[in-house]
TrEMBL record:
Pfam families: Scramblase. PANTHER family: PHOSPHOLIPID SCRAMBLASE FAMILY MEMBER 5 (PTHR23248:SF25), PHOSPHOLIPID SCRAMBLASE-RELATED (PTHR23248). InterPro entries: Scramblase. The gene is Plscr5. Keywords: Calcium, Lipoprotein, Palmitate. One of its GO terms (cellular component) is plasma membrane. GO terms for molecular function: phospholipid scramblase activity. May mediate accelerated ATP-independent bidirectional transbilayer migration of phospholipids upon binding calcium ions that results in a loss of phospholipid asymmetry in the plasma membrane. It comes from Rhagologus leucostigma. This is Phospholipid scramblase.
Amino acid sequence: QLDQIIIHQQVELLEAILGTETSSKYEIKNHLGQRVYFAVEENGCFDRKLCSPIRSFTIRIADNTGREVIRVIRPLRCNSCWFPCFLQEV
């Protein structure tokens, strides 16, 4: 039973040194700091570079045994003055 979660993004060495964004990885911990889930963002380099804030992605959340428990999918949605009605959705 989880009453609180803490999410820590894992920063890769290449990302820290070169300033390039890589696929994000996250540890999801309970209030005691114990890892209960692990999340990985899947998307392409093109999406990260050109569409960063509105990019499409899939996040797979797995438990400590590696079994996927949640999948979050966000499609690419245009968000500009030309298309203000296309809000982000997951």
